[in-house]
Design goal:
Elements (H helix, E strand, L loop, with lengths): L2 H7 L20 E7 L6 H16 L8 E7 L7 H10 L4 E4 L2 H10 L5 E4 L20 E4 L6 H12 L5 E6 L6 H15 L2 E6 L6 H11 L3 E4 L3 H5 L1 H10 L4 E3 L2 H5 L4 E4 L2 H16 L16 E5 H7 L5 H6 L2 E3 L1
Parallel strand pairs: 1-2, 1-3, 3-4, 4-5, 6-7, 6-8, 8-9, 9-10, 11-12
Antiparallel strand pairs: 10-11
Helix pairs in contact: 2-11, 3-4, 5-6
Length: 329
């Protein structure tokens, strides 16, 4: 999708409002490359990337005036990322924004000189993409959206919501750079909670039915869905399959509960994308990514879809209702 389609998809109120007082006045037209996974034709894709555009707008950057945006999406097909990244490098963009581990890896393999801003990577240090959170080194910086420890908290909340569950299935994508790390943490947390973990590989949309059939066959009592761009693209389908198999399901992004999922615990994806604009701003003003500390999320959302809970015949404990940041009726 080209930049005109990108801005067109975000038309309306997103680009409204006055420019920031410190708007760029140099007259230079910066070129920003975006290497995403969820296309702008998807409503959530438009919303989360719209948050990034809004963040840029608040800092004084306007498409056609002082920036141009080259948007590329894998549409959940991660094997396309290397060529898309190479295309952005050929366009000589000033900075590349990449939301997830496999996107950052593809961008970094394509260039070691163009700055790369990540907007939600799990454990970038353990992934080997930055030297440390305080001093990233290299050409990658940005926001860490998740830590592997969040999986333990998600399992704990899921167990609190459905205390009789003894077997939990976890949906993961082997193509996702972060998922092996999450699985390792999930296995450790499951041992502490005394639940069995059933791992379900899903490499593409054709694997969902097979995975849910395995859940039924192995009699798992609950489901944990790891955060993933391809999964996000098919969030309504996942929520529908969870409902049909009557599984209480935990997700890492609120976009799933908006699509009918039961519960989410995780950072705000849209806020991370909005914050990514501050890194782009600093880099365009001359800062080196090697010197910009990686920002970690400070707030995690607990959102419960009560309509889905009722459909599952699930009574949410009062302790969870009191801690919820939002409840969907």
């Amino acid at each position: 999708m080209d930049r005109r389609a990108f801005i067109g998809a975000l038309a309306g109120g997103l680009l409204a409002g006055p420019l920031a007082a410190d708007a760029q006045q140099s007259g230079k037209l910066f070129r920003i490359g975006v290497l995403g996974n969820v296309p702008l034709t998807d409503p959530e894709g438009a919303r989360v990337w719209g948050a990034f555009i809004q963040g840029l707008r608040e800092l004084g950057y306007v498409e056609g005036r002082n920036i141009t945006i080259e948007f590329r999406s894998s549409d959940g097909k991660y094997e396309r990322l290397p060529e898309l990244a190479a295309e952005l490098v050929r366009l000589k963009v000033d900075v590349i924004v990449a939301p997830a581990g496999q996107n950052v890896v593809a961008a970094q393999r394509a260039t070691r000189t163009i700055p790369i801003v990540m907007s939600g990577l799990t454990d970038p240090v353990e992934s080997g993409l930055v030297a440390s959170l305080a001093r990233p080194g290299g050409n990658v910086t940005g926001l860490s959206g998740f830590s592997t420890e969040i999986v333990g908290k998600q399992l704990e909340l899921l167990k609190e919501m459905a205390p009789k569950v003894s077997r939990v299935a976890i949906l993961w994508n082997p193509a996702n750079q972060s998922h092996p790390l999450l699985l390792r943490e999930a296995e450790a947390a499951a041992r502490l909670l005394r639940v069995q973990l059933q791992t379900l590989e899903v490499r593409g949309p054709d694997d969902f039915e097979t995975a849910f059939a395995a859940v039924t066959r192995e009699r798992a009592g609950a489901l944990l869905v790891a955060a993933d761009g391809m999964f996000l693209l098919h969030r309504a389908r996942i929520a529908d399959l969870a409902a049909k198999t009557r599984l209480p399901a935990m997700y890492g992004l609120r976009e799933y509960v908006d699509a009918g999922g039961l519960v989410v615990y995780g950072p705000s994806l849209r806020e991370n994308f909005r914050r990514a604009a501050t890194y782009v701003d600093k880099i365009l003003k001359g800062a080196k990514p090697a010197d910009l500390p990686v920002e970690q999320p400070t707030k995690f959302e607990l959102i419960i879809n009560l309509k889905t809970a009722r459909a599952l015949g699930l009574t949410i404990p009062p302790s969870l209702l009191l801690r919820a940041d939002e409840m969907i009726q």
